[in-house]
Amino acid sequence: MRAHPRRQAWRNRAATTAAVLVAAAGLATGQAATAHAAVTCDVAYSTNDWQGGFTANVTIKNLGDAIDGWTLGFTFTAGQKLQQGWSATWKQEADKVTAKNLEWNGKLATGASTSVGFNGSWSGSNPKPTDFSINGVACGGQPPVNQAPTVSLTSPASGSTHAAGAAVPLAATASDDGAVSKVEFYVDGTLVGTDTSAPYSHSATGLSSGAHTATAKAYDDGTPVLSKESAGVPFTVGGTGNPSIVASSASVSVPEGGSKTVGYKLSQAPSGNVTVNLTKTGDADLTIAPSSLTFTASNWNTAQNVTVSAAEDSDESNGTATIAAAATGHTGVSVTATEEDNDGDTPPVGEHVDNPYDGATGYVNPQWSAKAAAEPGGDAVANISTGVWLDRIAAIAGSSSAMGLRAHLDEALKQDAANGNKPLTIQIVIYNLPNRDCSALASNGELLIAENGLNRYKTEYIDPIAAIMKDPKYAALRIVTIIEIDSLPNLVTNLNVAKCQEAKDSGAYVNGVRYALDKLHAIPNVYTYIDAAHHGWIGWDTNFGPSAELFATTVAGTAKGFDSVDGFITNTANYSALKEPHFTISTTVNGQTVRQSRWLDWNFYVDELSFAQAFRQELIRRGFKSNIGMLIDTSRNGWGGTARPTKPSTSNNVDTFVDESRVDRRLHAGNWCNQAGAGLGERPQANPAPGLDAYVWIKPPGESDGSSKFIPNDEGKGFDRMCDPTYEGNERNKFNKSGALPDAPISGQWFSAQFRELLKNAYPPVQ
């Protein structure tokens, strides 16, 4: 097995589009004795505001002659301050702001656009500039169109219960393209309070016992005034009874050999710490962990998960158990757990099931397994299922030293015959688009768009793969295909790279992915999961929504539309931590949100699980089926070892707090190649969390991301300085060192030092 990717195309800033101002074309007046190009420009300016700060995204479009070098200018009118910017050299003098192009985005052909952005601060209000210019020539146009504000309730929590007679805290966040003039709070449609400054809040008193619904309504300062009402949040005012323990579900079904989670919280804030003890009675094959939870006055309304696991057994019955949660002074709650038995109840051969990992064993690649077992301590993980990478046409047939696709499927049949009645899942990575990984160097591929690459991809790569997979003798296997790592997100974030722009303009990526989906998903026992990057790439709103939209429009154009996709995978071959246990995106330090830290850099997600679950909901909102599942590659994101923090930092500095608290120990979240200090992550398992089909090991641990120096090869793989441990970094990773291990071979080849590092730092530890 050969060849693997790395992570690139990292976007280092957030700019959530809240409203768009378009300054229409402005024509330069004639200047008789000049050879300069005639400037005609169009500027779109959008912001995401919060109390005291904002992120702005500015798109410059050239409507005139080609430009070789540009300087954007505009004026702040309310005392706003430029803090930091990207994709340009930013400067503020008094109220005047300029942004000068960088080397890579200075040339703008007629009709071409480029996007830049910055973070700023404000007080009072944050009106948008109206006097944009390019190279000193005004971009004229109409005043901005007023946009309605946005508003959402943050308190009370949905479904919460509050003691009779007690005040119910109401709170909301609101933002606008201008300023929010006030936020009104309603209970059951009746106005109960108004707040004119952030943070917007009100205490509702005198509410009767029973069920209620809270809403908030925000008003802007425009003419005419526009307003927006939030979604309703249900809550209950209780009687004189005890507070209670609340479970996320009254019952849970757990696949044999798998696990599910149940969330617990309290119905109201306690006066002191509350310990909830959980006991399980019933089927011995069903177990729970942990057996106790501690709630405080600050976390009582945040669900804490209890994992319910079902061990493999030989009987054919669906065992049941009762999980009782109890705490002093609180009404308890019981949850019924049912084991979904997989003995004697295997779906018919070839049937397309909802989750191909559910109840199945995983294919163990014998070639990877032998290499892992040969390392000290490696036999402890050598029988874990990993992905099989088809990174070039020759990999389909294989060679004397590398098994081909048919050889792997034949071996999978042998393993399937030896595992009893359970189905077997084998994971195949489809990874050979023309202009592959267009913003990378270490994992470039063999096909080029300009050299008939798309046609070759279809006829020489996808067609032979599909022909082998649909061989009837493999019909009993569940074949999971991982579709084109790092492809579509490059069309959102990296169009400044010529090969990426070519991939977009030619339609090669979109058409190639559609062709692969049409061919592969038509085979009943083949499952398709599209690569969806990771939170450190598309976790910012400027990337998050556009990526989901690109996935939707791409898949909608297949023969079966949204039915041609089973799900998406994140973190493939990357190192992003599955969970950050010591802080969340809402954690604040000395009045500053952790989003303001250098590490998060205004990202909306602190870890991969929260990102994957949120991105799944966004995909469903844009048309994907409600039962799509997510996969997370956990092969190298464990981050254990002695460097792993065991508790949150006590620092009052937000940067220090995050750096001392985070378990992801990379020098920068944009670093992706052979990372020092990394460890094996969660072992593959089905149904590990809501919305997740499985944690998987797609990148086989021990296989290099790229070489530490240029190594000649016949696989089309170049040398990327991010794999060089002496590299001082670039704009994308804020000029941090690469964090890469030394003496690495080309991508896909065995890297013993990396495997040993991963084994040593595994989390959970390898037993």
From TrEMBL:
<dbReference type="InterPro" id="IPR016288">
    <property type="entry name" value="Beta_cellobiohydrolase"/>
</dbReference>
<dbReference type="GO" id="GO:0030245">
    <property type="term" value="P:cellulose catabolic process"/>
</dbReference>
<feature type="signal peptide">
    <location>
        <begin position="1"/>
        <end position="37"/>
    </location>
</feature>
<keyword id="KW-1015">Disulfide bond</keyword>
<dbReference type="InterPro" id="IPR008965">
    <property type="entry name" value="CBM2/CBM3_carb-bd_dom_sf"/>
</dbReference>
<dbReference type="GO" id="GO:0030247">
    <property type="term" value="F:polysaccharide binding"/>
</dbReference>
<keyword id="KW-0732">Signal</keyword>
<dbReference type="InterPro" id="IPR012291">
    <property type="entry name" value="CBM2_carb-bd_dom_sf"/>
</dbReference>
<protein>
    <recommendedName>
        <fullName>Glucanase</fullName>
        <ecNumber>3.2.1.-</ecNumber>
    </recommendedName>
</protein>
<dbReference type="Pfam" id="PF17957">
    <property type="entry name" value="Big_7"/>
</dbReference>
<dbReference type="Pfam" id="PF00553">
    <property type="entry name" value="CBM_2"/>
</dbReference>
<keyword id="KW-0119">Carbohydrate metabolism</keyword>
<keyword id="KW-0136">Cellulose degradation</keyword>
<dbReference type="Pfam" id="PF01341">
    <property type="entry name" value="Glyco_hydro_6"/>
</dbReference>
<keyword id="KW-0326">Glycosidase</keyword>
<keyword id="KW-0624">Polysaccharide degradation</keyword>
<dbReference type="InterPro" id="IPR001919">
    <property type="entry name" value="CBD2"/>
</dbReference>
<dbReference type="InterPro" id="IPR013783">
    <property type="entry name" value="Ig-like_fold"/>
</dbReference>
<dbReference type="GO" id="GO:0004553">
    <property type="term" value="F:hydrolase activity, hydrolyzing O-glycosyl compounds"/>
</dbReference>
<feature type="active site">
    <location>
        <position position="437"/>
    </location>
</feature>
<keyword id="KW-0378">Hydrolase</keyword>
<dbReference type="InterPro" id="IPR036434">
    <property type="entry name" value="Beta_cellobiohydrolase_sf"/>
</dbReference>
<dbReference type="InterPro" id="IPR001524">
    <property type="entry name" value="Glyco_hydro_6_CS"/>
</dbReference>
<feature type="domain" description="CBM2">
    <location>
        <begin position="34"/>
        <end position="142"/>
    </location>
</feature>
<comment type="similarity">
    <text>Belongs to the glycosyl hydrolase family 6.</text>
</comment>
